[in-house]
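F.,

This is the one I mentioned.
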C-alpha cells in the first residue's frame, strides 16, 4: 500500500540522551514594547554561539532554568523571554494588548535588540503554536524549528481538552475541574472559566485559577501527578497562567481563521524542522502533529511511545536534545 506520508521515527528507550548541565544567564533585561508591557528576557550559553529563541508554553507560562538545558551551552546562544503578563514580565497577569500578534512583534523586537539575523526557534505546546505563527509571519528570520507537543489552537483541540475528550480518560481530575462551575454553565467550560478568571474579585480568580491549573497538571505526564510543575501550586503563577491561557483560548488564539496555521504551511517551505510528539499526550493529542507533518515536508517527525505531554519525560528530552544537536549543523 502506497503511503502519502512516511511513517514517523519512533524513539527507543535505549541509550537516551539527557539534559545538558545547568547554566546561568550571562545577560538579562526588560524590553519596552512601547505600550503597557515590559518583557523580561535573558541570554544564556555562548555569546558567540549559534542563535536560538526558546518559547515557553501556556500561553501564560514562564521561562525556567530547565528550558536552557535542551541546548549545548558551549555552542548555542540562547535567548528566552517571559511573554506578556507572565513570569517576570510586567505588569503581571495583564490581558491588555496581549495577543498572538503582539507576542510575534515581541519576538522580532528581541531579535533586533540582540542583533540576530536568523535563528532556530524552539517551542513546545503553546510554544509550538507561537513558533509556527512566527515562522509563517517571518520565514526569512527562521533558520530552523524544533517543536514538541504540537498545538494548533483549533476548536477541535480545545473541545477535546476543555469539554469532552480528555475528561473520559481522567474523570477524577475532570470532576475537580468542574467543581467551581455550576452544572448549568458546564456546556461551555472555557466561557465559564473566563467569566471567573476576569472577575474583579481576586478570590474568585484564585479559586478558578487553582482548578484550571490543576487540571493541566493532572494530565500533563504519564508519570502521574508527581510530574506536575511545582509552580502550578503558586497562586500568583496560577492566576497569570489561567487568565492568559483562557483569554487566548476564548479568542481562538486571535487567528483570522479557524485553521490558520494549517492553511499557511506553504510559508514553511524550505525551513527544516523537528517535530517531537509523545504518543500518549492527552493535552495536545498526536493528531495535530500528524497534520502538521503531513503538510510540512521539510520536518522530521519522531514519536516517543512512552511519553505524554511534559517536556521533561525521558524520551522527550532525548529526542529534543538530539534535534538541537542536529540543528547545529545547518
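My design for it:
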Amino acid at each position: 500500500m502506497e503511503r502519502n506520508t512516511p511513517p514517523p521515527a519512533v524513539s527507543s528507550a535505549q541509550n537516551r540522551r539527557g539534559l545538558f548541565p545547568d547554566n546561568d544567564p550571562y545577560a538579562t533585561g526588560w524590553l519596552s514594547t512601547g505600550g503597557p508591557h515590559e518583557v523580561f528576557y535573558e541570554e544564556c550559553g555562548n555569546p558567540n554561539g549559534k542563535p536560538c529563541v526558546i518559547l515557553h508554553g501556556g500561553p501564560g507560562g514562564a521561562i525556567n532554568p530547565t528550558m536552557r538545558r535542551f541546548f549545548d551551552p558551549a555552542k548555542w546562544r540562547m535567548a528566552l523571554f517571559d511573554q506578556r503578563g507572565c513570569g517576570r514580565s510586567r505588569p503581571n497577569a495583564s490581558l491588555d494588548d496581549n495577543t498572538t500578534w503582539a507576542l510575534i512583534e515581541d519576538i522580532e523586537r528581541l531579535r533586533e535588540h540582540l542583533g540576530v539575523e536568523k535563528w532556530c526557534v524552539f517551542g513546545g505546546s503553546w510554544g509550538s503554536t507561537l513558533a509556527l505563527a512566527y515562522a509563517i509571519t517571518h520565514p526569512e528570520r527562521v533558520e530552523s524549528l524544533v517543536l514538541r507537543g504540537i498545538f494548533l489552537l483549533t476548536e477541535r483541540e480545545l473541545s477535546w481538552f476543555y469539554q469532552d475528550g480528555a475528561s473520559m480518560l481522567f474523570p477524577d481530575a475532570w470532576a475537580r475541574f468542574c467543581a467551581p462551575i455550576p452544572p448549568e454553565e458546564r456546556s461551555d467550560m472555557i466561557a465559564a472559566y473566563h467569566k471567573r478568571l476576569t472577575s474583579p474579585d481576586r478570590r474568585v480568580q484564585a479559586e478558578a485559577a487553582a482548578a484550571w491549573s490543576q487540571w493541566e497538571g493532572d494530565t500533563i505526564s504519564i508519570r502521574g501527578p508527581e510530574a506536575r510543575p511545582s509552580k502550578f501550586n503558586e497562586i500568583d503563577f496560577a492566576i497569570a497562567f489561567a487568565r492568559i491561557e483562557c483569554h487566548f483560548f476564548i479568542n481562538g488564539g486571535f487567528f483570522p481563521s479557524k485553521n490558520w496555521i494549517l492553511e499557511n504551511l506553504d510559508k514553511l517551505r524550505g525551513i527544516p524542522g523537528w517535530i517531537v510528539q509523545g504518543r500518549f499526550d492527552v493535552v495536545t493529542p498526536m493528531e495535530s502533529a500528524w497534520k502538521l507533518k503531513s503538510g510540512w515536508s521539510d520536518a522530521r517527525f519522531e514519536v516517543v511511545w512512552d511519553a505524554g505531554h511534559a517536556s521533561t519525560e525521558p524520551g522527550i528530552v532525548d529526542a529534543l536534545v538530539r534535534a538541537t544537536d542536529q540543528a547545529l549543523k545547518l
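Strands lie at 9-11, 27-32, 38-45, 50-55, 76-81, 119-124, 142-148, 273-278, 299-304.

Talk soon.
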